[in-house]
Structure formats: C-alpha cells, structure tokens
Amino acid sequence: MKTNISFKEANQLVNIRDQSAKAATTSRNLQLPILALFCGFMALLPWKNSVVMTIILFLIIVISYIYYFTLKSSNKLLENFGWELAKYVMLQTITLSLILGIRIDGGRPFGDFYMIVALSYLVLITVFSYFRCKAMILNYLKSNNINLKKSASIKIWDKGFSKLLIGMLVMIILGTQIYRLSKWWFIGDDSSISVISIQNEWLGALVVLVGGIFLLLLLIIFSLLPTLVFNPKIITNGILLKKYATEFQQENARSNQ
Questions:
Q1: Closest residue by Cα to residue 128 from 33, 217, 15
Q2: Which residues contact 56 (CB under 8 A, 6 or more apart)?
Q3: In this structure, are residues 14 and 237 in contact, taking their beta carbons and an 8 Å threshold?
Q4: Least enclosed by CB within 10 Å: which of 16, 150, 153, 215?
Q5: Nearest to 74 by CA among 236, 249, 234, 253
Q6: Cβ–Cβ under 8 Å, residues 75 and 248
Q7: Which of the 8 DSSP states describes residue 191?
Q8: Of 235, 4, 224, nearest to 132 (Cα)?
Q9: Is residue 129 a contact partner of residue 93, using CB atoms and an 8 Å limit?
C-alpha cells in the first residue's frame, strides 16, 4: 500500500522511544510458537478435502513465523510490527481452515471442483482482507490529521465492516445459545416436523439465489473476523519505520545520545 507521507509526518506519528521500550520489554518467544502450533493444528481440518490446501495454510503460518523473527533480528524497532502482522495472518488461517475443512455427507463439497472453489475462496478473502486492512490504516492516518483523499469506501470497509463483523460475532453467540435451547426443547418430541416445499419454480429459484448470496456474505464476513484484532496503529508505524529506516535510525541514535 502506497501512501504519500513525508518523514516529518511519519516522525509525528511514530514514537521511537515508545517502540524501543516495547521491543525491549515485551517477550513473545513463547507466545508465537504456541499460536503457530494451534494454527497448524487447525490447518489440518482441510486435510481430508485437499492435502494441497493444508500445505498452503502451513506455508502461510511458517512464513509468518519466520518473517517475525527475521524482522526482530534485523531491526528491533520493527519487532512490534512483525508480531502484530504475524499474529493477524496466523489468526486469519484459523477461519480459512474452518471453512476449507467443511465436509458434506462425509465427502468434500463441490466434488472435483473443490480445488478451484477453494483457491478462488483464498484469493477472494485475500483481496477483501487487503482492502479491509487498508481502510483501517487510512482511517487511522486520517484520525491523526494526515491529509488523504476522502473516500466513501474507507468508511464502508472500516466502520461499516466493523459493525458487520461485531454483528456476526453476536449472531454466532446467540445462534449457539438458541441451538442449545431448541435442542433441549425438542428432546423427547417424536412429532414429525412438516417440510415446507416451494411448488413455483421461479419462486424456488429466487429463494435459492437469495439464500446463496446471503450465505456467501456470511461466509465472507466470518472469514474476515480476524481483522477485528488487526492493529492499524502498530502496522502503520511499522510501514513508516521500514519506509524511512535510515532516517529513523539516525533519529533513534540522536535520542540515545
């Protein structure tokens, strides 16, 4: 993501001493391996559907893990950035694993077309995640008086999507509770439940179409739940620290004198 931010503006946003203090006092040598192992375990869910998808998820986790320690060893000021980015990417693989691991009647969905659908899903979520995170970063910059072009898409991807994601969490929690209550209510009830059938073909097709679109939206929103833990402040600071690495190193050296 390209942003026309001068070093003067970047220096106002990034607190070098704060970055140094956090990097020196925060230990993540144990947290990240545990998170990586858990995400790796979740990545096994699509194994029966496709070994390739499991390998792709494993690669994403491993690359994120290595990237964090590479940044940490190369520049201590980028440790927080590497941690937040690796954490977000790893958490993102959890929702991907849950969706890609879905099985229908003991078999993989879409049959022989599973790989095409799965790869398309990965690309789609990657694109949506990019725009969502980009909007969060741009909104953070705007809130800190950085002059940027106004765009309605920023509000939609940031605030609008945040409400949808929070609503999704509420729906999941409420849905779980309602399911438990309904399951308890119908225990021992042998009465048959009438099946509703739609005789009109056009109406049936419309219901299927609307239901499919609604299901797709729910799928996308659920897949983007990890963006709720995306930290635009630290990620933005990291991007600026990388962009003006030399300038910030000189600034850090002067502040330590």
A1: 217
A2: 122
A3: yes
A4: 150
A5: 249
A6: no
A7: P
A8: 224
A9: no
Amino acid (one-letter) located at 190: D
Cβ atoms of 85 and 235 closer than 8 Å = yes
pLDDT tens string for the chain (257 positions)? 555 777 777 777 776 656 555 554 456 678 889 999 999 999 999 999 999 999 999 999 999 999 998 988 887 778 888 999 999 999 999 999 999 998 888 888 888 889 999 999 999 999 989 988 888 888 888 888 777 665 555 555 555 656 666 666 666 666 555 555 555 544 444 444 444 455 556 666 666 677 777 777 788 888 888 988 898 888 988 888 888 877 777 766 666 55
**Where does residue 47 rank: exposed (0-12), middle (13-18), buried (19+ CB within 10 A)?**
middle
Q: Running DSSP on this structure, what letter comes out for residue 29?
A: T
How is 77-119 classified by DSSP, letter by letter?
Answer: GGHHHHHHHHHHHHHHHHHHHHHHT--BTTB-TTGGGHHHHHH
Q: How far apart are CA 42 and CA 100, in angstroms?
A: 11
Yes or no: say if 77 and 233 are a contact pair by the CB < 8 Å rule: no
For residue 31 the two structure tokens come to: 């947290």
CA distance 25 to 27: 6
Residues 167 and 224: beta-carbon distance below 8 Å: no
End-to-end CA distance of the chain: 34
Q: How far apart are CA 186 and CA 188, in angstroms?
A: 6
Residue 174 to residue 43: CA distance in whole angstroms:
27
